[in-house]
UniProtKB/TrEMBL annotation:
<keyword id="KW-0862">Zinc</keyword>
<dbReference type="GO" id="GO:0061630">
    <property type="term" value="F:ubiquitin protein ligase activity"/>
</dbReference>
<dbReference type="GO" id="GO:0016874">
    <property type="term" value="F:ligase activity"/>
</dbReference>
<keyword id="KW-0863">Zinc-finger</keyword>
<feature type="domain" description="UBR-type">
    <location>
        <begin position="38"/>
        <end position="109"/>
    </location>
</feature>
<protein>
    <recommendedName>
        <fullName>E3 ubiquitin-protein ligase</fullName>
        <ecNumber>2.3.2.27</ecNumber>
    </recommendedName>
</protein>
<comment type="similarity">
    <text>Belongs to the E3 ubiquitin-protein ligase UBR1-like family.</text>
</comment>
<dbReference type="InterPro" id="IPR003126">
    <property type="entry name" value="Znf_UBR"/>
</dbReference>
<dbReference type="InterPro" id="IPR039164">
    <property type="entry name" value="UBR1-like"/>
</dbReference>
<dbReference type="Pfam" id="PF02207">
    <property type="entry name" value="zf-UBR"/>
</dbReference>
<keyword id="KW-0479">Metal-binding</keyword>
<keyword id="KW-0808">Transferase</keyword>
<comment type="function">
    <text>Ubiquitin ligase protein which is a component of the N-end rule pathway. Recognizes and binds to proteins bearing specific N-terminal residues that are destabilizing according to the N-end rule, leading to their ubiquitination and subsequent degradation.</text>
</comment>
<dbReference type="GO" id="GO:0005737">
    <property type="term" value="C:cytoplasm"/>
</dbReference>
<dbReference type="GO" id="GO:0071596">
    <property type="term" value="P:ubiquitin-dependent protein catabolic process via the N-end rule pathway"/>
</dbReference>
<dbReference type="GO" id="GO:0000151">
    <property type="term" value="C:ubiquitin ligase complex"/>
</dbReference>
<feature type="zinc finger region" description="UBR-type">
    <location>
        <begin position="38"/>
        <end position="109"/>
    </location>
</feature>
Amino acid sequence: MFADDDDDDVPRSFLFFPMWGVRGEPGRAAVRGYDNHAKCGLVWIPHVVAYRCRTCGISPCMSICRDCFKRGNHTDHDFNMFLSQAGGACDCGDTSVMKAEGFCSDHGINNCQNKAPVPDDLMVVAEAMMPRMLLRLLLHFRDHNAKNHNSTVYSRTAKYCDDYCSMLMEFNNMGELMRRVMTKALIHEDTYRRLVEPPFPSNEYGKFLEHSRRKYEEAVRLFPSPEPPDEYRHLPALGETIVHKTLLEEFIFWTFKYEFPQNIVCFLLNMLPDQDYKEHLTRTFVMHYCRIPSVLEMSNDPDTLSNRVVHMSVQLFSNESLALKMVEELSLLHVMIISLRQMMSKILVANTLHDPKKNFHYVIDCAKRVMKEHCYWPLASDFNNVLSHESVALVFLKDDNLIDMWFQFLSMLQGMNVNIRETGSHVEFEPSSYYAAFSCELEASAYPMWSIISHLKDPSHAPLAKKIMLFCVNYLQDWLDAVNFYIHPKFDKEELYRASFHFPLHRYLAAFICQGVKTMGMSLSDILPSADLLPMLMMHPLRVQLIAGSRRPASSACSIGACTWGPKSYVMTLGATKPPNLGRPLWKRPAPDRGTGLAGTTGWASKKGTVVWAASMPRSLSRNRMNWLLMESGMDLEGVSSGTCGRSSLSSVLKLGKG
């Protein structure tokens, strides 16, 4: 059953178990005859076609297998067929993930049939043998543990037990009765104590168990432990030591240790239709979660490992009630943010956006392996997954410590991957860090932001949104001070050739202000930063627009930047706004005393004709009232004048919109 040539020192009686009668077709049919399961739970590996129905889905991560989709009624629904990247499991029948009307004819209430009582002796053999069959798999991982981390050895060790895992999954597929026997053996503490804890028998088997226990204890001791901030060391899921009390808990440990082997991941996920088991699995996964960054950093194949981590985590965190329970009982949000922040804090470098001698801001080094190979992706994906649940997002928004930690992480992305303008030879190919930076900002910053904003829909959420804006402003002020722009709000000559495309703090401020005005009835005059701060906030996004415009013909990555531009453009609009003129009719707004270019009274306006941009231009500029702002790079906003028009080497024209 184990294709391993190195097991000569292990008693052969431990290697093979008899296939008792229930594996035969008659026995299998007898067990299935009493199956009354309501959930599908079919598990698939990567690159398998599955379906997602947004009409029926409660969680955005819901997915169903092809058979359940075909047997269900999804006529006129908003659905799509997709090729699974990380693998998945069918949610048909699970009311916590999808609506009952989307269930197929075989699951949910459609399969709640009254069946005959189960004979007392039907599962007796299975109940006696299953704990030892599971123990055999556990002993295999103990016995092959390598002192030095080696992805190749781990992969080979997991491969040895492919057939054995397939056999266990066949048992699970017999239905609810056999699944219950398996999950009971996995989650009961008494079973674990009886099987693997001393005293051991004084024979060859006892010596083998004693030896395997020493190897297990050594593996636990050498496994990387987290280094959380002192104020969070008391959290159970951030503890330095791991204590396992069930077979399932030790299985999860070896799953992490052996880099999430596909056969073990599928085996553990196959039993998710058992709700009690699902909660135990989720709790155990969260208790080990803070070790994911170390596993990803040490892996030889972080891309495959990332997919397998998400294959498991997405099934566990898509259930809103279970995710909320983990947040409340095991501080899941704290664990996720701390894990992500610690992974990134190891690759910080001094920011070079402004004079390094006067700059004490540190940003992520996008040339590092963690960024280029997207090692952060599972953590960012899981965080975004749990924030898709409104109850979890509200917990996040109400906790000042969580928000503060999150903005500490966002500050690491603020101004990262500084681009230097090449004035000599042509640059044929962008460095790989260019794409890595855009991917990171999108996945680890923008996606969580939009998940949070999607829950802020009415005036009752205004205080929470306002709190986020306050954090944004405070961290933006700290950032401006760190890069020496708060005191010296201009670009020096040597800084004109350096620019970053990444300003997540600006993005958050703009997006939350926009959402507050649009859906929560907030007034701009109540939530805008001070008039002194606004012009400084618009300068860096403006440089992004100017440089992106000059790069667009040659850079395919600009398409990535385009989708991130909207909020930053909004910051620019707010930055040039004169609050006393907000809401006034366009033709009644007086021309500013300074920075008007030419003495005119027109400005950029919304469709309703109210002023949202403070710069003035003459009506004769365009018969279509197309308004432009002339901005000289390196100058204060108030330094704009008609004299800049002729200095084309430094001036750029920014199209803002129609009146």
